[in-house]
Amino acid sequence: MRQEIYMAREIETKCIHLEEAEGALNHFGAMAYPIYQSATYAHPGVGQSTGYDYSRLQNPTREHLEKTVASLENGIDALAFSSGMAAITLMMELFKPGDHLIVDADLYGGSIRLFNHVSEKNGIEFSSVDCHKENVAAYIRENTKAVYIETPTNPMMNVTDIKALAEITKKHNILLIVDNTFLSPYFQNPLNLGADIVVHSGTKYLGGHNDTLAGFLVTNREDISERFRFLIKTTGAGLAPFDCFLIQRGIKTLGVRMDRAQENAIEIAKWLKEQDIVKKVVYPGFKEHPGYEIMKKQARGFGAMLTFELTKKEYAINILEKVRMIKYAESLGGVETLITYPMTQTHADVPEHIRKQNGITDCVLRMSVGIENVKDLLNELEEVFAEVRGE
Ligand SMILES: *Cc1c(COP(=O)(O)O)cnc(C)c1O
Q1: Do residues 268 and 195 share a domain?
Q2: Which controlled-vocabulary keywords does the entry list (predicted)?
Q3: From residue 302, how far is each of 267, 295, 296 by CA, in Å?
Q4: What is the pLDDT of residue 344?
Protein backbone atom coordinates (compact mmCIF):
# COMPACT_ATOMS: atom_id res chain seq x y z
CA MET A 1 0.00 0.00 0.00
CA ARG A 2 2.70 2.47 1.00
CA GLN A 3 4.71 1.36 -2.01
CA GLU A 4 1.79 2.26 -4.30
CA ILE A 5 1.58 5.76 -2.84
CA TYR A 6 5.30 6.18 -3.49
CA MET A 7 5.00 5.01 -7.08
CA ALA A 8 2.26 7.55 -7.66
CA ARG A 9 4.37 10.46 -6.50
CA GLU A 10 5.06 13.19 -8.98
CA ILE A 11 8.55 14.00 -10.20
CA GLU A 12 8.84 17.36 -8.39
CA THR A 13 8.36 15.48 -5.12
CA LYS A 14 10.77 12.71 -6.11
CA CYS A 15 13.43 15.36 -6.71
CA ILE A 16 13.23 16.30 -3.04
CA HIS A 17 12.30 13.07 -1.23
CA LEU A 18 13.93 9.70 -1.82
CA GLU A 19 11.06 7.37 -1.06
CA GLU A 20 13.00 4.62 0.68
CA ALA A 21 14.49 7.14 3.14
CA GLU A 22 11.02 8.36 4.14
CA GLY A 23 10.06 8.37 7.78
CA ALA A 24 13.56 7.46 8.97
CA LEU A 25 15.40 9.93 11.19
CA ASN A 26 18.86 8.62 10.37
CA HIS A 27 21.84 10.96 10.34
CA PHE A 28 20.44 12.95 13.32
CA GLY A 29 17.49 14.00 11.19
CA ALA A 30 19.74 15.99 8.85
CA MET A 31 17.61 17.45 6.06
CA ALA A 32 20.49 17.38 3.58
CA TYR A 33 22.05 13.96 3.12
CA PRO A 34 25.53 14.08 4.76
CA ILE A 35 28.78 14.09 2.81
CA TYR A 36 30.58 10.85 3.67
CA GLN A 37 34.09 12.02 2.94
CA SER A 38 35.66 8.63 3.59
CA ALA A 39 37.73 6.47 1.27
CA THR A 40 37.42 3.31 3.33
CA TYR A 41 35.14 1.72 5.98
CA ALA A 42 35.98 -0.36 9.04
CA HIS A 43 34.57 -3.88 9.16
CA PRO A 44 32.60 -5.03 12.23
CA GLY A 45 34.23 -8.51 12.03
CA VAL A 46 35.88 -10.94 9.68
CA GLY A 47 33.73 -11.49 6.62
CA GLN A 48 31.38 -8.73 7.75
CA SER A 49 30.63 -5.34 6.20
CA THR A 50 28.63 -2.24 7.13
CA GLY A 51 27.45 -2.34 3.53
CA TYR A 52 30.34 -0.11 2.51
CA ASP A 53 33.91 -1.30 2.03
CA TYR A 54 35.71 1.21 -0.17
CA SER A 55 34.41 4.35 -1.88
CA ARG A 56 35.41 3.35 -5.40
CA LEU A 57 32.84 0.56 -5.05
CA GLN A 58 30.23 2.49 -3.11
CA ASN A 59 29.84 5.54 -0.94
CA PRO A 60 26.69 6.44 1.03
CA THR A 61 26.44 9.98 -0.40
CA ARG A 62 26.87 8.69 -3.94
CA GLU A 63 24.39 5.89 -3.33
CA HIS A 64 21.76 8.35 -2.13
CA LEU A 65 22.20 10.44 -5.28
CA GLU A 66 22.18 7.36 -7.51
CA LYS A 67 18.92 6.15 -6.01
CA THR A 68 17.38 9.58 -6.50
CA VAL A 69 18.35 9.68 -10.19
CA ALA A 70 17.16 6.08 -10.71
CA SER A 71 13.80 7.06 -9.26
CA LEU A 72 13.53 10.15 -11.51
CA GLU A 73 14.16 8.04 -14.63
CA ASN A 74 12.14 5.03 -13.43
CA GLY A 75 15.24 2.85 -13.65
CA ILE A 76 16.26 0.02 -11.35
CA ASP A 77 19.77 1.42 -11.02
CA ALA A 78 21.73 4.61 -11.70
CA LEU A 79 25.48 5.15 -11.44
CA ALA A 80 27.10 8.54 -10.82
CA PHE A 81 30.34 9.45 -12.62
CA SER A 82 32.86 12.26 -12.50
CA SER A 83 31.49 13.68 -15.78
CA GLY A 84 29.07 12.88 -18.57
CA MET A 85 31.96 11.73 -20.75
CA ALA A 86 33.21 9.42 -17.98
CA ALA A 87 29.74 7.84 -17.95
CA ILE A 88 29.68 7.36 -21.73
CA THR A 89 33.26 6.03 -21.72
CA LEU A 90 32.33 3.40 -19.15
CA MET A 91 29.18 2.53 -21.10
CA MET A 92 31.33 1.77 -24.15
CA GLU A 93 32.98 -1.01 -22.12
CA LEU A 94 29.79 -3.01 -22.73
CA PHE A 95 31.11 -3.57 -26.25
CA LYS A 96 34.05 -5.52 -27.64
CA PRO A 97 36.22 -5.28 -30.76
CA GLY A 98 34.19 -6.10 -33.85
CA ASP A 99 30.91 -4.81 -32.43
CA HIS A 100 28.97 -2.28 -34.48
CA LEU A 101 26.94 0.67 -33.19
CA ILE A 102 24.50 2.92 -34.98
CA VAL A 103 24.88 6.47 -33.66
CA ASP A 104 22.84 9.54 -34.43
CA ALA A 105 24.53 11.87 -36.93
CA ASP A 106 23.89 14.96 -34.77
CA LEU A 107 25.29 14.38 -31.28
CA TYR A 108 27.14 16.24 -28.56
CA GLY A 109 30.60 16.93 -30.04
CA GLY A 110 32.40 15.19 -27.17
CA SER A 111 30.49 11.96 -27.82
CA ILE A 112 31.43 12.03 -31.51
CA ARG A 113 35.08 12.65 -30.51
CA LEU A 114 35.00 9.70 -28.11
CA PHE A 115 33.50 7.36 -30.71
CA ASN A 116 35.85 8.48 -33.51
CA HIS A 117 39.10 8.75 -31.59
CA VAL A 118 38.86 6.30 -28.71
CA SER A 119 36.18 3.65 -29.35
CA GLU A 120 37.17 3.13 -32.98
CA LYS A 121 40.77 2.51 -31.93
CA ASN A 122 39.34 -0.14 -29.58
CA GLY A 123 37.81 -1.94 -32.56
CA ILE A 124 34.22 -0.70 -32.35
CA GLU A 125 32.60 0.11 -35.70
CA PHE A 126 30.14 2.95 -36.16
CA SER A 127 27.50 4.02 -38.62
CA SER A 128 26.45 7.65 -38.35
CA VAL A 129 22.74 7.80 -39.21
CA ASP A 130 20.12 10.58 -39.13
CA CYS A 131 17.90 8.58 -36.81
CA HIS A 132 15.03 11.08 -36.91
CA LYS A 133 14.45 10.59 -40.64
CA GLU A 134 16.28 7.52 -41.93
CA ASN A 135 15.17 3.90 -41.63
CA VAL A 136 17.46 2.72 -38.83
CA ALA A 137 16.59 -0.94 -39.43
CA ALA A 138 18.32 -0.76 -42.81
CA TYR A 139 21.66 -0.13 -41.05
CA ILE A 140 21.46 -3.07 -38.65
CA ARG A 141 24.12 -5.70 -39.33
CA GLU A 142 24.85 -9.06 -37.81
CA ASN A 143 27.36 -7.47 -35.41
CA THR A 144 25.20 -4.45 -34.49
CA LYS A 145 24.84 -4.22 -30.73
CA ALA A 146 23.20 -0.85 -30.06
CA VAL A 147 21.63 2.36 -31.31
CA TYR A 148 22.79 5.54 -29.58
CA ILE A 149 20.73 8.73 -29.88
CA GLU A 150 19.95 12.13 -28.40
CA THR A 151 16.50 13.66 -28.77
CA PRO A 152 16.29 16.55 -29.29
CA THR A 153 19.82 16.54 -30.71
CA ASN A 154 22.60 18.96 -29.91
CA PRO A 155 22.61 21.53 -31.45
CA MET A 156 20.15 21.03 -34.33
CA MET A 157 17.17 19.88 -32.21
CA ASN A 158 16.22 16.91 -34.38
CA VAL A 159 13.56 14.80 -32.68
CA THR A 160 13.48 11.01 -32.88
CA ASP A 161 10.45 8.92 -31.97
CA ILE A 162 11.89 6.87 -29.09
CA LYS A 163 9.03 4.38 -28.94
CA ALA A 164 9.13 3.63 -32.65
CA LEU A 165 12.91 3.19 -32.53
CA ALA A 166 12.61 0.93 -29.46
CA GLU A 167 10.31 -1.37 -31.43
CA ILE A 168 13.07 -1.82 -34.01
CA THR A 169 15.87 -2.35 -31.46
CA LYS A 170 13.78 -4.83 -29.46
CA LYS A 171 12.89 -6.77 -32.59
CA HIS A 172 16.60 -7.10 -33.44
CA ASN A 173 17.59 -7.72 -29.84
CA ILE A 174 19.97 -4.77 -29.66
CA LEU A 175 20.25 -1.98 -27.09
CA LEU A 176 18.67 1.45 -27.34
CA ILE A 177 20.73 4.09 -25.54
CA VAL A 178 19.37 7.63 -25.14
CA ASP A 179 21.34 10.65 -23.96
CA ASN A 180 18.56 12.53 -22.13
CA THR A 181 20.67 15.52 -21.05
CA PHE A 182 18.76 18.15 -23.04
CA LEU A 183 15.33 17.52 -21.51
CA SER A 184 16.31 15.98 -18.16
CA PRO A 185 14.05 13.43 -16.44
CA TYR A 186 11.67 16.27 -15.62
CA PHE A 187 10.53 16.47 -19.24
CA GLN A 188 11.30 13.03 -20.69
CA ASN A 189 11.80 9.44 -19.48
CA PRO A 190 13.27 7.30 -22.29
CA LEU A 191 13.19 4.06 -20.24
CA ASN A 192 9.39 4.34 -20.12
CA LEU A 193 9.39 4.53 -23.92
CA GLY A 194 11.49 1.38 -24.41
CA ALA A 195 15.10 2.53 -24.08
CA ASP A 196 17.51 0.22 -22.19
CA ILE A 197 20.05 2.78 -21.00
CA VAL A 198 19.74 6.50 -20.30
CA VAL A 199 22.81 8.75 -20.26
CA HIS A 200 23.00 12.13 -18.54
CA SER A 201 25.55 14.83 -18.29
CA GLY A 202 24.65 15.74 -14.70
CA THR A 203 26.73 18.88 -15.24
CA LYS A 204 23.74 20.33 -17.07
CA TYR A 205 20.12 20.44 -15.82
CA LEU A 206 20.45 17.93 -12.98
CA GLY A 207 23.20 19.94 -11.26
CA GLY A 208 21.80 23.11 -12.75
CA HIS A 209 24.23 25.69 -11.39
CA ASN A 210 27.25 25.51 -13.72
CA ASP A 211 29.44 24.59 -10.74
CA THR A 212 29.94 20.80 -10.84
CA LEU A 213 30.76 18.15 -13.43
CA ALA A 214 28.86 14.88 -13.20
CA GLY A 215 27.46 12.08 -15.35
CA PHE A 216 24.93 9.27 -14.99
CA LEU A 217 24.03 5.95 -16.53
CA VAL A 218 20.54 4.66 -15.72
CA THR A 219 19.06 1.31 -16.69
CA ASN A 220 16.02 -0.83 -16.04
CA ARG A 221 17.79 -4.07 -16.87
CA GLU A 222 19.26 -6.26 -14.16
CA ASP A 223 22.03 -7.68 -16.38
CA ILE A 224 23.20 -4.23 -17.50
CA SER A 225 23.12 -2.87 -13.96
CA GLU A 226 25.28 -5.77 -12.79
CA ARG A 227 27.79 -5.18 -15.58
CA PHE A 228 27.92 -1.42 -14.87
CA ARG A 229 28.51 -2.09 -11.16
CA PHE A 230 31.40 -4.38 -12.03
CA LEU A 231 32.84 -1.78 -14.42
CA ILE A 232 32.61 1.22 -12.08
CA LYS A 233 34.29 -0.80 -9.34
CA THR A 234 37.01 -1.79 -11.77
CA THR A 235 37.63 1.48 -13.58
CA GLY A 236 36.94 3.98 -10.79
CA ALA A 237 35.37 7.10 -12.30
CA GLY A 238 32.66 7.37 -9.63
CA LEU A 239 31.54 10.85 -8.55
CA ALA A 240 33.27 12.23 -5.44
CA PRO A 241 31.12 12.70 -2.28
CA PHE A 242 31.14 16.50 -2.21
CA ASP A 243 30.17 16.67 -5.88
CA CYS A 244 27.38 14.16 -5.17
CA PHE A 245 26.11 16.54 -2.50
CA LEU A 246 26.11 19.46 -4.95
CA ILE A 247 24.24 17.53 -7.63
CA GLN A 248 21.73 16.25 -5.05
CA ARG A 249 21.16 19.85 -3.94
CA GLY A 250 20.69 20.95 -7.55
CA ILE A 251 18.15 18.21 -8.25
CA LYS A 252 15.85 19.46 -5.48
CA THR A 253 14.91 22.46 -7.64
CA LEU A 254 14.96 20.70 -11.03
CA GLY A 255 11.22 21.14 -11.60
CA VAL A 256 10.98 24.87 -10.89
CA ARG A 257 14.18 25.57 -12.78
CA MET A 258 13.05 23.68 -15.88
CA ASP A 259 9.60 25.28 -15.87
CA ARG A 260 11.04 28.78 -15.63
CA ALA A 261 13.82 28.15 -18.15
CA GLN A 262 11.32 26.77 -20.64
CA GLU A 263 8.96 29.74 -20.18
CA ASN A 264 11.87 32.10 -20.84
CA ALA A 265 13.04 30.05 -23.84
CA ILE A 266 9.62 30.27 -25.50
CA GLU A 267 9.58 34.07 -25.10
CA ILE A 268 13.10 34.42 -26.46
CA ALA A 269 12.49 32.04 -29.36
CA LYS A 270 9.44 34.10 -30.38
CA TRP A 271 11.43 37.33 -30.09
CA LEU A 272 14.31 35.96 -32.16
CA LYS A 273 11.93 34.89 -34.90
CA GLU A 274 10.89 38.51 -35.42
CA GLN A 275 14.43 39.84 -35.91
CA ASP A 276 15.50 40.78 -39.42
CA ILE A 277 19.07 39.53 -38.89
CA VAL A 278 17.83 36.07 -37.85
CA LYS A 279 17.31 33.63 -40.68
CA LYS A 280 15.99 30.69 -38.70
CA VAL A 281 15.11 29.74 -35.11
CA VAL A 282 15.11 26.05 -34.24
CA TYR A 283 13.00 25.32 -31.17
CA PRO A 284 11.03 22.09 -30.89
CA GLY A 285 8.20 23.93 -29.12
CA PHE A 286 7.26 25.71 -32.36
CA LYS A 287 4.39 24.05 -34.23
CA GLU A 288 6.33 24.28 -37.48
CA HIS A 289 9.26 22.27 -36.02
CA PRO A 290 9.19 18.83 -37.72
CA GLY A 291 9.51 17.10 -34.34
CA TYR A 292 6.75 19.05 -32.58
CA GLU A 293 4.08 16.31 -32.64
CA ILE A 294 6.53 13.60 -31.51
CA MET A 295 7.75 15.84 -28.69
CA LYS A 296 4.16 16.35 -27.55
CA LYS A 297 3.66 12.61 -27.50
CA GLN A 298 6.88 11.51 -25.78
CA ALA A 299 7.91 14.46 -23.58
CA ARG A 300 6.25 16.68 -21.00
CA GLY A 301 7.95 19.82 -22.26
CA PHE A 302 10.10 21.25 -25.03
CA GLY A 303 13.08 22.32 -22.95
CA ALA A 304 15.04 25.54 -22.81
CA MET A 305 17.63 25.01 -25.55
CA LEU A 306 17.35 26.84 -28.83
CA THR A 307 19.51 27.24 -31.89
CA PHE A 308 19.33 30.16 -34.29
CA GLU A 309 20.97 31.12 -37.52
CA LEU A 310 21.97 34.69 -38.32
CA THR A 311 21.90 36.05 -41.86
CA LYS A 312 25.66 36.79 -41.70
CA LYS A 313 28.67 35.33 -39.90
CA GLU A 314 29.66 38.81 -38.60
CA TYR A 315 26.35 39.08 -36.78
CA ALA A 316 26.97 35.80 -34.99
CA ILE A 317 30.47 36.83 -33.94
CA ASN A 318 29.38 40.32 -32.85
CA ILE A 319 26.59 38.92 -30.69
CA LEU A 320 29.11 36.70 -28.87
CA GLU A 321 31.41 39.67 -28.32
CA LYS A 322 28.74 42.08 -27.16
CA VAL A 323 26.71 40.05 -24.66
CA ARG A 324 27.30 41.05 -21.02
CA MET A 325 24.89 39.44 -18.54
CA ILE A 326 24.26 36.64 -21.01
CA LYS A 327 27.58 34.83 -21.15
CA TYR A 328 29.46 33.50 -24.14
CA ALA A 329 30.30 30.07 -22.75
CA GLU A 330 30.01 26.40 -23.48
CA SER A 331 27.74 24.12 -21.49
CA LEU A 332 24.04 24.39 -20.80
CA GLY A 333 21.30 23.64 -18.33
CA GLY A 334 22.35 26.03 -15.58
CA VAL A 335 20.53 28.97 -14.00
CA GLU A 336 22.59 31.41 -16.11
CA THR A 337 21.74 32.06 -19.75
CA LEU A 338 24.65 31.03 -21.98
CA ILE A 339 25.24 31.41 -25.65
CA THR A 340 27.79 29.43 -27.63
CA TYR A 341 29.28 29.00 -31.08
CA PRO A 342 28.94 25.28 -31.90
CA MET A 343 31.22 25.65 -34.93
CA THR A 344 34.31 26.59 -32.89
CA GLN A 345 33.36 25.36 -29.42
CA THR A 346 31.16 22.35 -28.72
CA HIS A 347 31.43 20.87 -32.22
CA ALA A 348 34.93 22.01 -33.24
CA ASP A 349 36.22 18.43 -33.38
CA VAL A 350 33.35 17.16 -35.50
CA PRO A 351 34.56 16.54 -39.08
CA GLU A 352 33.63 19.45 -41.34
CA HIS A 353 31.51 17.41 -43.77
CA ILE A 354 29.37 16.11 -40.89
CA ARG A 355 29.06 19.62 -39.46
CA LYS A 356 27.89 20.90 -42.83
CA GLN A 357 25.51 18.02 -43.32
CA ASN A 358 24.00 18.79 -39.90
CA GLY A 359 23.61 22.47 -40.74
CA ILE A 360 26.17 23.74 -38.23
CA THR A 361 27.47 26.76 -40.15
CA ASP A 362 29.44 29.81 -38.99
CA CYS A 363 26.12 31.68 -38.70
CA VAL A 364 24.64 29.31 -36.09
CA LEU A 365 24.48 30.11 -32.38
CA ARG A 366 23.08 27.94 -29.59
CA MET A 367 21.47 29.37 -26.50
CA SER A 368 20.84 27.69 -23.16
CA VAL A 369 18.16 29.85 -21.59
CA GLY A 370 18.46 30.30 -17.84
CA ILE A 371 16.06 31.36 -15.13
CA GLU A 372 16.70 35.13 -14.97
CA ASN A 373 13.70 37.44 -15.35
CA VAL A 374 12.89 37.23 -19.04
CA LYS A 375 12.48 41.02 -19.26
CA ASP A 376 16.16 41.46 -18.43
CA LEU A 377 17.16 38.83 -20.97
CA LEU A 378 15.07 40.48 -23.68
CA ASN A 379 16.39 43.96 -22.76
CA GLU A 380 19.95 42.75 -23.16
CA LEU A 381 19.16 41.03 -26.46
CA GLU A 382 17.43 44.21 -27.76
CA GLU A 383 20.53 46.24 -26.90
CA VAL A 384 23.01 43.73 -28.32
CA PHE A 385 21.07 43.26 -31.55
CA ALA A 386 20.80 47.04 -32.02
CA GLU A 387 24.58 47.38 -31.58
CA VAL A 388 25.21 44.49 -33.95
CA ARG A 389 22.99 46.06 -36.62
CA GLY A 390 25.04 49.22 -36.20
CA GLU A 391 22.10 51.23 -34.86
C1 LIG B 1 27.72 18.08 -21.89
C2 LIG B 1 27.16 16.90 -22.55
C3 LIG B 1 27.77 15.65 -22.46
C4 LIG B 1 29.09 15.45 -21.73
O5 LIG B 1 28.97 15.70 -20.37
P6 LIG B 1 30.17 16.29 -19.45
O7 LIG B 1 29.53 16.34 -18.12
O8 LIG B 1 30.51 17.65 -20.00
O9 LIG B 1 31.30 15.35 -19.53
C10 LIG B 1 27.15 14.57 -23.06
N11 LIG B 1 25.99 14.71 -23.73
C12 LIG B 1 25.38 15.91 -23.87
C13 LIG B 1 24.10 16.00 -24.62
C14 LIG B 1 25.94 17.04 -23.28
O15 LIG B 1 25.33 18.21 -23.42
Answers
A1: no
A2: Pyridoxal phosphate, Transferase
A3: 13, 7, 8
A4: 80
pLDDT-derived band at 88, boundaries 50, 70, 90: very high
Task: Tell which residue, 172, 257, 158, has the closest CA to residue 206.
Answer: 257
Q: Do 197 and 324 share a domain, yes or no?
A: no
Is residue 124 domain-shared with residue 14, that is, in the same domain? yes
In the reported structure, the alpha carbon of residue 23 is separated from the centroid of ligand 1 by a whole-number distance in angstroms of 35
User: Which residue among 232, 251, 270 closes a domain?
Assistant: 251
Substitution candidate for ligand 1 out of 148, 203, 307, 338 with most atoms within 8 A of CB: 203
pLDDT value of residue 1: 45
Looking at the structure, tell me whether residues 326 and 195 fall in a common domain. Answer: no
Structure confidence at residue 349 as a pLDDT band (50, 70, 90)? confident
